[in-house]
Design brief:
The chain is α+β, with helices and mostly antiparallel strands and 436 residues long. It has two domains: 195 residues, no CATH class; 226 residues, no CATH class. The chain has a six-stranded mixed beta barrel.
């Protein structure tokens, strides 16, 4: 306890010097904590935004093989599947049905390729909350042939609300078809998601695809907690296998090639009736997880670079401190303090310095994160995919925080070790006789 008191007193004697070094440490922990905390929330936010756009956390699609070997994407009968899911204790909130096609939207000589998703607007409240409507109204989607396109598509086609446009597409059996839509609303352009941001009524999309009433292409399953995706997907897979629902094998998405391997399986296999594939939001988010890993690696590199610079300052500062306190060291040694005690005293000062800087950095980062999280960037921003309802969010992994603090403490002690060892080697008579 005496060591602690002396160490704190010595730091307090040089307030300006201690504040500068502690401030440098605080800046380092501030930068790294912000990066780690932002990256920690990215996967959750991207996942939630994706789930709203795609209508689910877990998905089932049906596939049929024709006599010519062509694959048709269709779910004709889902009662057995939905009954099986409802009878199990699964954290499922909603089921959503969708169909989609990629075709050409045509208006007065202009055309653009666009994926059009068929939506059951009476059920999909999440999509209604997510879409940012610039012109028109969602209420007009009561028109069976209503369509919503993003701002960029509307400008490209030079079309206004209420006007009719044509669509050219291929049905599920690869036959050409043509239909008509009436533009009822224009949504904000979501940037990289522009190609999937056109929405129509599920019934009319199914009609254009030549699907019968009650048929569709994708069953989306919304969970009560996005963190339960992998656990729930495994339970759903086992449940459907037990109910003798034909399924493609689940393959690992760790290498980011889940859909490529699944496509190869579909082309290579032959089966009768409908065979289902189950995939999850996490299968789409492999690249996002890679980006998070890169951000965390960058944060670690920034931390190491900052503290290598700070270490030089700490080492030089402690050399100066030892020079200034040479006679004090000699007095303590003459009064019986051992070499180990002198060394540990200076290391204790360095440790308290680093912990004080860490505490200040965490307080500042917490304050800054609180301020940033209160800013509403809006849903009409290119970075919406990383936000939650237009706000930045932060989630710090406790293990990573402990790792950062440990690295800082070790590097600070290492920076002070050599000056402290030199102080410990001083002979009492020599230290009392002159300054070094």
């Amino acid at each position: 306890m005496k060591y602690y008191g002396v160490a704190i007193r010595n730091l307090n004697r040089q307030k300006k010097r201690s504040f500068l070094l502690g401030g440098a440490i605080a800046f380092g922990i501030l930068v790294v904590t912000l990066i780690n905390s932002f990256s920690g929330s990215i996967i959750t936010n991207v996942g939630e935004n994706f789930s709203q756009l795609m209508a689910g956390h877990i998905f089932l699609t049906g596939h049929e093989k024709t006599s010519t070997g062509k694959t048709i994407n269709v779910i004709r009968e889902d009662k057995k599947i939905i009954d099986a899911l409802r009878q199990n204790d699964l954290p499922i909130r909603y089921f959503h049905k969708r169909s989609a096609f990629s075709g050409y939207l045509i208006f007065e000589g202009e055309s653009i390729t666009q994926q059009i998703t068929g939506v059951d607007w009476s059920r999909e409240k999440f999509l209604k909350e997510r879409l940012v409507i610039i012109k028109g109204s969602l209420e007009e989607m009561s028109d069976p042939r209503g369509i919503i396109v993003n701002q960029k598509v509307a400008e490209k086609l030079n079309i206004e609300i209420g006007e009719t446009l044509l669509v050219q597409l291929k049905t599920v059996t690869d036959q050409y078809n043509v239909g008509e839509f009436r533009l009822v609303a224009v949504s904000y352009d979501p940037g990289i998601f522009a190609s999937i941001s056109a929405y129509a009524n599920l019934s009319y999309v199914n009609e254009l695809l030549n699907l019968k009433e009650g048929e569709y292409q994708t069953l989306g399953i919304f969970l009560s907690d996005i963190r339960l995706i992998d656990y729930t997907a495994e339970k759903i897979y086992k449940t459907l296998i037990q109910r003798e629902v034909p399924l493609f094998p689940r393959t690992s998405s760790e290498e980011g090639e889940y859909f490529q391997s699944l496509s190869r399986d579909i082309r290579a296999q032959t089966w009768e009736d409908t065979k289902f594939r189950l995939f999850t939001l996490n299968d789409f988010l492999y690249q996002v997880r890679q980006m998070v890993n890169i951000l965390n690696t960058i944060a670690l590199v920034v931390l190491l670079i900052l503290f290598l610079i700070i270490m030089i300052g700490i080492t030089n500062t402690f050399r100066m401190v030892i020079y200034e306190r040479t006679r004090e060291i000699g007095t303590m040694r003459a009064l019986g303090l051992q070499r180990k005690g002198v060394r540990n005293l200076f290391l204790m000062e360095a440790l308290f310095l680093s912990l004080g800087g860490v505490l200040l950095g965490l307080l500042l980062s917490g304050l800054l994160m609180f301020i940033l999280s209160r800013i509403n960037f809006g849903m009409d921003t290119p970075m919406f995919i990383f936000l939650r309802q237009g706000h930045l969010t932060f989630a710090m992994d406790p293990v990573r925080l402990i790792l950062n603090i440990s690295i800082i403490a070790v590097l600070t002690l290492l920076a002070a070790f050599f000056p402290a060892r030199k102080a410990a080697k001083m002979e009492p008579a020599q230290a009392l006789g002159k300054y070094y």
